[in-house]
Automatic annotation (TrEMBL):
SUPFAM superfamilies: Thiolase-like. It is found in: Cytoplasm. Homodimer. Residues 2-420 form the Ketosynthase family 3 (KS3) domain. Keywords: Acyltransferase, Cytoplasm, Transferase. It comes from the Bacteria. It holds the Pfam family Ketoacyl-synt_C. One of its GO terms (cellular component) is cytosol. Its EC number is 2.3.1.41. This is 3-oxoacyl-[acyl-carrier-protein] synthase 1. SMART domains: PKS_KS. Belongs to the thiolase-like superfamily. Beta-ketoacyl-ACP synthases family.
Length: 425
């Protein structure tokens, strides 16, 4: 018998909040975490702004031992460990301290490019003939699965511990992978999420592609403008989000707080055919992903109360809205839709998980956060849906079902359906 899967823990390390209470407050008030980065100006970047979580040295010492911190030079691992550990604690789980791991709990924690600063440090040492000065952690900080390895050791997880990587779809895909494992009865709990490094060596390629805004360096908080007529490109970001998924039976036995239920979802690819390419989505694939998520979740389009879109603040925003309209067939009764990227920028491989945390908070607390920097909605979008469906102020409103989407480079897609958990069902 297939297991029902619920969410019992949340952790966040976002540009506009590094704890769940702080992040929720930022969502409700529309607070931006995008700032000016002097280093990017020194390196002649066109876009000199970005979203970067603020982690104090004092806070770092709460998550890493002095030995673990020695030579630690990967912001993605830091963000992932902070958010992952917080989600574990938030779920009321105890870190395995004895010789035996927790065989029922696993990890799927994704990333894109990990440990670039450590790579750079290693390259300089190797080229200088100083290989022995690399230190013992250079490999674990630069291998893709370094984040899940760090978390697995810190938390003592004995079920599947692995890493996925699917560009901007990574975090949402990780959640669905963990969901499927629990649903099949192969684990009781899975820590899922994703992380991403910050800085010029991550963001430089996007600046070279001329898809980042270069005209907001003096007012960074206004730069990321999803669905706006004045959108001029996405702002790069970084961070991590984490969620504890759990078998409903296990959660009830523990008396755990249940934030929401995962009804199902869909992952697919457009094969870089048709309109699809390495950097653009195949629209038919996006629509199939949306409808597949509805079928797999056993719901109708009319039951969706709100959508948290991918919506990156580029010319593709109106195309995404058109895909939602065609897939849902709800031109006259379209759900509310919002994008977190106005507040955080596009956190790349971390975006899906950070936005999933934001989606779950809206369900749990009964509100819809605003689309900031969207005073003037793009006219192509207004040809598709009504202006009222794009809230510019926080709406205090109970939500029952929310759809979350992520679409990534490589023409890959993921949509997950969350539902407010009903304790009497």
């Amino acid at each position: 018998m297939e297991k029902r899967v619920v969410i019992t823990g949340l952790g966040i390390c976002a540009p506009n909040g590094t704890s769940i209470p702080q992040f929720e407050k930022a969502l409700r008030t529309g607070k931006s975490g995008i700032t000016f980065h002097p280093q990017l100006k020194e390196l002649n970047f066109s876009c000199q702004i970005g979203g970067k979580p603020s982690i104090s040295e004092e806070k770092l010492s709460e998550y890493f031992t002095p030995l673990q911190r020695r030579g630690l030079n990967s912001s993605g691992i830091v963000y992932g460990v902070v958010s992952g550990t917080d989600a574990f604690i938030d779920a009321g789980l105890e870190i395995a301290e004895n010789a035996s791991p927790d065989w029922d709990t696993g990890i799927i924690f994704g990333t894109g490019i990990l440990g670039v600063d450590k790579f750079r440090e290693a390259i300089h040492l190797i080229d200088a003939g100083k290989t022995r000065r690399l230190g013992s952690t250079s490999v674990i900080q630069t291998m893709a699965s370094g984040i899940s390895a760090y978390l697995g050791g810190i938390l003592g997880c004995g079920n599947q511990v692995t890493t996925n990587s699917s560009a901007c779809t990574t975090g949402t895909e990780a959640l669905l992978m963990g969901y499927e494992r629990i649903k099949a009865g192969k684990a009781k709990r899975m820590l899922v999420g994703s992380c991403g490094d910050h800085g010029p060596y991550i963001w430089g390629g996007f600046d070279a592609m001329r898809i980042l805004p270069g005209n907001y360096n003096d007012n960074p908080e206004e730069a990321s403008r999803p669905m706006s007529a004045k959108a001029s490109g996405f702002v790069p970001g970084s961070g991590a989000g984490a969620l504890i998924l759990e078998d409903l039976e296990s959660a009830l036995e523990r008396g755990a707080k249940i934030y929401a239920e995962v009804l199902g979802g869909e992952v697919n690819s457009g094969g870089q055919r048709g309109e699809g390419s390495m950097t653009a989505a195949n629209n038919e694939a996006v629509q199939r992903c949306i409808t597949g998520a509805l079928i797999n979740s056993s719901i109708s389009a009319a039951e969706i109360d709100s959508i948290n879109g991918h919506l990156t603040a580029t010319s593709k925003d109106s195309v995404e809205i058109e895909n939602w309209v065609k897939a849902l067939h709800l031109e006259n009764d379209f759900p509310y839709i919002n994008s977190l990227k106005g507040m955080t920028g596009h956190c790349l491989s971390a975006s899906g998980s950070i936005e999933c945390v934001a989606s779950v908070l809206q369900l749990d607390k009964g509100f819809i956060f605003p689309n900031i920097n969207c005073e003037e909605i793009h006219p192509d979008i207004l040809d598709l849906i009504s202006e009222e469906r794009i809230p510019r102020k926080t709406i205090e409103k109970p939500i029952n079902i929310l759809a979350k989407a992520s679409f990534g480079f490589g023409d890959v897609n993921a949509v997950v359906i969350f539902k407010k958990y009903n304790y009497v069902c």
